[in-house]
């Protein structure tokens, strides 16, 4: 006796196939919605900002007169900030990841630390701003300097870098570690010569994505008291400075129409900077990507 | 192992140099008693095969011989393993030192994602050898020793992942030989290889035993019969029988060995 009635199966065929098509369009629609909003946003920014987006804009200091104003101090400030955040967050983040993955015993304490790191990644950035204000700006008396902002931003992106680096280190096949240990290598030699080279694409991709977040953050810097208007450049990491998002924030809060166009041009600069960073991340990933 | 067998293997070994002496080795994975009172002696320049069904402890035992077993958390051991007279289970014996004398070839070929050359010089490099001329000589000697030199000599700088599975495994053997060990441990080295590559590795073993003592775990009884001088049969964490390969396959003294060898279980 047959348990399946094939005429019923055939009857059921049509709704199954139409559902298949329906969901395909549903997902396409979801994708298109995001793309459409992004497209409108980009169009508005570029059409507004383009008239101001020229060499003069890059070379000029901020000014009360919109036709003279530029992003020079903010752009250089953002680069200064990156110069502090990149080494501090990468060294601390990768070091923590190596410790947790390779050295730490799997017990209640490491699990607790692990959960907290993942939670920290979800803490609102303004909370990190308050922490930076208390510790770096006030307690360590660094003021609204490059160093204070850089350390605050490093703390902000640290959880992301740790988690990404851990993932990358964990995905290195254990057979490769065994091969190294089997030849008499120490743990450090194995990490340096086998684990890190294999994990570097993942670590750098995560690191650069974290840096792109740091470059666009505004809220913690507002709390740290970074100036909205600054007409000189920092000379050392202890100097006061400002960054692109702060400059854009300043311009959008001005009443004059021209400043809003300036803000759009500033956003274009920020987007280009982000695009550059992401391109580097993709290039690194493609260059080092290996199969196992 | 029964007393008579222990007696016998002792007598057989009279006058030979022993590489490994295992006395009353017990091993637990947490609560699981994986090795029970192992008594096993390995003679210099012989091939010792370890056979037995899955989960009998043969891989566990071979991994204990270079303490790779320590990578698994929750492992406890009692008893002693004397390597050239020194107890390797003594925590003061540096495991890195042990592993420069005892090389290991794994079940799955595991070359590093580096060039063929870099794979072979990995061991010598970590032991501090930097002289390019010496490294070059080590590469040629090891690759020749592993019978893969002619196949790769023109592409030493290409990635080892471009080699076939059988070539990768011989490269791993070369990498192991490059540190000039005293003993080579092999954990089912041909189980991931096709028959032709298996044959090549087996032929290689006959060459290798002139210079190294070899301990090989294998699932393949014909392989054990073809290549080894002595064979140990493990079952449920115990050594049931350990004697000359010719004897164990023609006239086993234990019923369980006979059942396993004739394919009645396992």
What attributes does this structure have?
heterodimer, A: 292 residues, mainly alpha, MetI-like fold, 2 domains, B: 266 residues, alpha/beta, Rossmann fold, six-stranded mixed beta sheet, four-stranded antiparallel beta sheet, 25% strand, disordered N terminus
Structure description:
The complex is a heterodimer of chains A (292) and B (266). Chain A has two domains: 6-51; 57-288, MetI-like (MetI-like fold, Orthogonal Bundle), CATH 1.10.3720.10. Chain A has helices at residues 6-49, 55-59, 72-103, 108-120, 125-139, 146-170, 174-182, 187-216, 219-224, 244-252, 257-288. In chain A, helix 3 (72-103) runs parallel beside helix 6 (146-170), helix 3 (72-103) packs across helix 10 and helix 5 crosses helix 6 (146-170). With 292 residues, chain A is mainly α. Chain B has one domain (3-261): P-loop containing nucleotide triphosphate hydrolases (Rossmann fold). Chain B is globular and about 55 Å long. With 266 residues, chain B is an alpha/beta fold. Chain B contains eleven helices and ten strands. Chains A and B meet through helix 7 and helix 8 of A and helix 3, helix 4 and helix 7 of B.
């Amino acid at each position: 006796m047959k348990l399946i009635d094939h005429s019923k199966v055939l009857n059921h065929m049509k709704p199954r196939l139409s559902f298949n098509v329906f969901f395909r369009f549903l997902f396409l629609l979801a994708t298109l919605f995001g793309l459409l909003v992004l497209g409108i946003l980009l169009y508005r920014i570029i059409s507004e900002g383009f008239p101001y987006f020229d060499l003069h804009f890059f070379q000029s200091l901020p000014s009360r007169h919109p036709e003279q104003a530029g992003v020079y101090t903010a752009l250089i400030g953002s680069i200064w900030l990156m110069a502090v955040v990149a080494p501090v967050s990468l060294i601390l983040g990768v070091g923590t990841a190596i410790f947790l993955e390779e050295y730490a015993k799997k017990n209640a304490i490491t699990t607790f630390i692990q959960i907290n790191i993942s939670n920290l990644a979800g803490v609102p950035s303004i909370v990190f701003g308050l922490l930076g204000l208390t510790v770096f700006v006030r307690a360590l008396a660094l003021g609204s300097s490059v160093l204070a902002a850089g350390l605050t931003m490093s703390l902000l992106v640290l959880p992301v870098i740790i988690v990404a680096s851990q993932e990358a280190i964990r995905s290195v096949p254990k057979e490769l570690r065994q091969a190294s240990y089997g030849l008499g290598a120490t743990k450090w030699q194995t990490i340096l010569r086998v684990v890190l080279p294999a994990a570097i694409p993942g670590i750098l991709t995560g690191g650069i994505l974290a840096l792109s977040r740091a470059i666009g953050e505004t809220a913690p810097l507002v709390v740290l008291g970074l100036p909205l208007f600054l007409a000189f450049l920092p000379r050392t990491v202890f100097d006061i400075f400002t960054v692109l998002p702060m400059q854009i924030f300043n311009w959008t809060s001005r009443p004059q129409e021209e400043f809003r166009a300036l803000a759009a041009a500033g956003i274009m600069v920020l987007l280009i900077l982000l695009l550059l960073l992401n391109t580097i991340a993709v290039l690194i990933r493609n260059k080092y990507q290996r199969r196992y | 192992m029964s007393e008579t067998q222990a007696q016998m293997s002792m007598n057989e070994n009279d006058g030979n140099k022993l590489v490994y002496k295992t006395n009353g080795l017990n091993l637990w994975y947490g609560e699981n008693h994986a090795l029970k009172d192992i008594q096993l002696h390995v003679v210099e320049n012989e091939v010792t095969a370890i056979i037995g069904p899955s989960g009998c402890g043969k891989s566990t035992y071979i991994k204990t011989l270079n303490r790779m077993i320590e990578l698994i958390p929750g492992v406890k051991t009692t008893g002693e393993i004397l390597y050239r007279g020194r107890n390797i289970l003594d925590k003061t014996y540096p495991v890195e030192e042990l592993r420069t004398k005892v090389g290991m070839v794994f079940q799955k070929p595991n070359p590093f994602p580096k060039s063929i050359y870099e794979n072979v010089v990995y061991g010598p490099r970590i032991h501090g050898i930097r002289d390019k001329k010496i490294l070059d000589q080590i590469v040629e000697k090891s690759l020749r020793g592993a019978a893969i030199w002619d196949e790769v000599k023109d592409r030493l700088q290409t990635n080892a992942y471009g080699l076939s599975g059988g070539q990768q495994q011989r490269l791993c053997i070369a990498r192991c030989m490059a540190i000039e060990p005293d003993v080579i441990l092999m954990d089912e080295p041909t189980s991931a290889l096709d028959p032709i590559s298996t044959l090549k590795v087996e032929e290689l073993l006959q060459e290798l035993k002139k210079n190294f003592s070899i301990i090989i775990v294998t699932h393949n009884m014909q392989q054990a019969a073809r290549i080894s001088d002595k064979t140990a049969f493990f079952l449920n964490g115990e050594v049931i029988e350990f004697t000359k390969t010719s004897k164990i396959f023609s006239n086993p003294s234990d019923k369980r060995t006979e059942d396993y060898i004739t394919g009645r279980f396992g």
